[in-house]
Structures are given as C-alpha cells and as structure tokens.
Amino acid sequence: MKPLAELLRHLSRPGITELALASGRPPMVRNATGYEPVDPGALTTDDLVKALQAMVGLARASTVSETPVQWTVNATGLGSLSIAAVRRGDLMNVRLTRATEGATQAAPPAPAASAAPAAPAAPGRTPYAATPGASAPADAVARTAQAGGPASVEAPARTAPVGAASVRGVPVGSVTAPSSARAPVADAAPARPPPASAPSYVADAAPARAIPISRHTPAPGRDLAVLLEQARSMHASDLHVVAGRPPLFRLAGELQPQDTVLAPELVERLLLPIIPERLRHVLERDGSVDFALDSEETGRFRVNVGRQRTGLKGVFRVISREIPTLESLGLPADIAKATHHHQGLIVLTGPSGHGKTSTLAALVDIINRETTHHVLTVEDPVEYVHPRKRALISQREVGTNTRTFASALKGSLREDPDVIVVGELRDTETVRMALAASETGHLLISTMNTPSAAKTIDRLIDLFPPADQQQVRLSLSSGLRLIVSQRLMPSTDGKRMVAAAEVLTGSVALGNLIRDNKTYQIPSLQQRGKSLGIIRFEDSLSDLARSGKATLETVKGFAENPDEIEAMVTGKRPGAAGTVPPPATPQEGARMLSKVGSLLGKKGA
C-alpha cells in the first residue's frame, strides 16, 4: 500500500470526488467516467485498519463492525470530508467522499466525537451503501498522545463528530447491516456515475425520466433500498413487500419474514414512486406491471408490482451483479457445445423461478466471450445487462424498445443478427417467428415454462392448429439443437439452491421421432442416448444425492418415480432385501445378462 498521504492527495485532483479502499482490491478513485485504480497493489485488512486509525483515532476505528458507521471531518486543503466504514469478518471497506463545494468552505470546526449527536447525512452527500472508501488529507492527519483519540482541531479526522450515515435517508444505526462482506467497487461501480442531482433509482422502462425512491422514511429500517440491500446480502432470490405483512425473503426456496408488519400506506409510499410513468395507467387498468429497477448501490432487480386484497404488493427478483457461468450454476459444461451451432433452436425449460433466465444469460455470455457474433435479445424486462466483450450485444425491452416479442422478431431479421435471444416463447405468433428465424440462418435461444423436454416439444406443436402441425414437426425435426429442463432444490445444508437438469440434444434419432409424431418414445431414447450427450432428469437427481449436494428425500420429492431414484442412489432394488448395484450403462447390463446365461448353461450341463 502506498503511504496514506500519497493516496489522499488524489482527492485534490480536479474531478476526483471519492477515494475507495477495500480488502483484496487496489485503491481506487472516482472520476467523471467511473472508478480507476491508483495503485496496482491489493490492500489488506491490516492496511485499512491502520489507515482508519490514522484518520479517526484508535478508539473510533475499533468501533467499526457490520453496522456501517460514518464520520464527518474538516480536512486541511480539502474541506469537509465524509469517512464511511464497515467490516464483516476479515474484510473491510472504507471510503472518503468530498462534500459539495461551498458547503466545504463554510463548514465549522468539528466538535469532539463523544459530544456530537448523530445526524443524518446531508441530502447532497453520496449515501453509504456498503461500498468501500476512506480518507483524510495526509498533512491533516496529525497524531496526539491522548488515550481516547485526539481532540485537536488540527487533526480533524480524529476530532470528527460521529454522524449517522444515511442509506436513502435512513440513519445507519437503524439499518440492518448485511451479514456478508462484498467489495462492490468492481461489481457495483457504474461506468458513468449520475450527477449529484440525479435520483437514486432509475427504472429501465423510462430512461428519459428518472424514478426516485421516496426519501421519506416512515419507520427505521423500512426504506426500500435497505430492504433490497438486505435481500442481496442474505443471498435471497426474491423480496416480497406486501401490505399487511412483514418483508418476506425467499431463502433456499422458503419465504422467511423479517422485521415487522408493513402498513398499506407505507407500502404505497415505497412502491408507487419506483413505477415508471408509462406503466402507471397499466397498473390502474390491469392491476399489475413488470419492469426492471437498477441502483448503483443495491444492483439490479426484476420487479412486479400489483394490487391485491390488502393493498399493493411488490416482488423483487434479485439479479446477480455478475453474469453467471454454467459451472457456477452447477449445470453440465457440455451444454455450451450448443452455442457453436450457426442456426437452429435452443430451448431452456422449467417452472417459473427455477433459474432459466440465469442459464440463458450464461449461454449468451459464452457467445459474448468467444465469438464476434451480433446477439440481439428481446426481453420483458431486460434482466442481466451484458457488458461489452467480443460480441455485439443489442438488448431490446418489450414495451420500451419494441411493442411485442413477435414484432421485435419480425424486425430483427433485417438487423443482421447471428444469434437471437427471446426471453420467453409465450404465444403462437412468437413461436412461429422463432421457428422461421431458426430456419433462416440464425441461432435462436429462448425459454418456456414446461416441465420436461418431451412435453416442451409437444407444447410447441400443440400451439398451432392441426393443419399446421405437420409443418411444425418438420421444422423442429431439423432445427432443434438442444432442450434443457431444469429444477432448483435446497442444498443439503439448506443455505442455497442446487440445480438438476435434463438435457436432450438434437440428433437424427430425435428428429425422426418428432417428424413421425412419436414423441411418446422420447423417454426410451433418453435411456439409451448417453453417447449422444443426453442426460435424464433421474440421473441428474441421483448424482446430486450421491455427491451430497442434496439429500435423498429432497431429490425424491422432485422425481416422477421416487423408488427408481432410491434404487439408483442406494443400490437397493424395490422390494428386495439385498443390495444389487444397478448397471451403469445398457451395454454393461447386456454383459451381465450374457454372463448369467453362460453360468446357467454350465450348471445345466
């Protein structure tokens, strides 16, 4: 780590407003284009502790914990500065933010920290949202010999009054701190920071008009931004904000209440301001709207706001800050092979809330990393925002950038795409356009809410009138490249979700079954098609149980034939007292039968 004095001098550079320090990351400053490192070396937690002690004193530095704290100081040459710090386990985040000009020069000398009452951060100040940072100018950090921390105005960083930081206007003391540390400088730092007057939240659906979250906080800890932060830090998949109920977090598939009951008036004050103006009449007309919400501090969320018996209800799906990979999702790596096709249809299926969007994003990211293709996505709303890599990614949102999925697909054929990604195949017109695109030299990737690979094919065909179904079978028989049907289930420790996946790859045998209207024989093809890259759902479930990622009882609850799963995992045949390991492959089973036959022949002789 460079000397603290040298790091703090960066705050005097034009356009630099913040110095951010985090364990395991290099020091960074924030300018008009985002965050940039000022030293290649990564910081250690010991470095941050020593720097904080130099700025606010040993006594105050020792109070840093999982509850974020903030001090306001007057620094020679820099004026009023805000130091915010949080520590979770072995990781620590510290940041120092310069106050706005004018207020800096007029700031009075800071009284002793022990005598200063807690006060909310100024509205113009960047709110602390578990992002790193730290500071106080080098020559302003003087040392004294007082045991409780110096009280000299010449050392303003150590004589600072303890003021309460604010997260969307909520004093930090009343905020439920995240339970795990995350260094959001690289994850959450925007490529282009908003101006000081910009609102905290901007809904994607109305890019020309900012939608701020209400700054009025009726009760401590009830601010929407705080709840969203808490959902992300707890690794919840969803947050439910419902009138007359406490906030509900979906953790490992289970809804768990937190805090106290939310009054209907409070829920309206939290939810109404974030709805894009173009959708407010839709809420009044239809009673429900969908849109995406993006925050610099808390990240990205897919949102549904609707009316129900007790008042408004908001459901926030947590979108990871990082694009997931097949490995991180626990899915077979061979799925990536399907992205090498230049045309055809890939369908990801499963019930709602079982990770189809994440798998879709992982496949798009593979194309983004490995090819120079033009990838055009049509989503409602846009969930994962793909960064610029090798490919050209054009993301369109239904209702904002295009009217419907079908109209976007129709227009996309003139936009020179290589890959077309459709958020969901919902209706006949969308499926018709998708099949046409997959036959005209494009790779089309989409999702459907169907329970299995075989039923996905049946659903695609049944969407059409009988007169058109044979043509659809012909299109699918030649163009289907991959179907992945997945389920999420609680892990053995109950702290996360693990995925089981059924994989059905396109092949001549599958094409013949589809063309001849014999989809009922697909399960038989799956049993003997391991060499084709086919993975049965039952095999995936048994692998989870054998590896200890999920319990046997859990996987049996997702199986159509629980006894078969138990036999595959334990080796016990149903109704048999002994233990007979099942054959690993059909070929092995044939060899076993041949051996038994030869033994019986010898015995008869």
Automatic annotation (TrEMBL):
Residues 102-142 have a biased composition (Low complexity). It comes from the Bacteria. Residues 102-157 are annotated as: Disordered. Residues 413-427 form the Bacterial type II secretion system protein E domain. It holds the Pfam family T2SSE. GO terms for molecular function: ATP binding; ATP hydrolysis activity. Belongs to the GSP E family. This is PilT/PilU family type 4a pilus ATPase. The lineage of its organism: Bacteria, Pseudomonadati, Myxococcota, Myxococcia, Myxococcales.
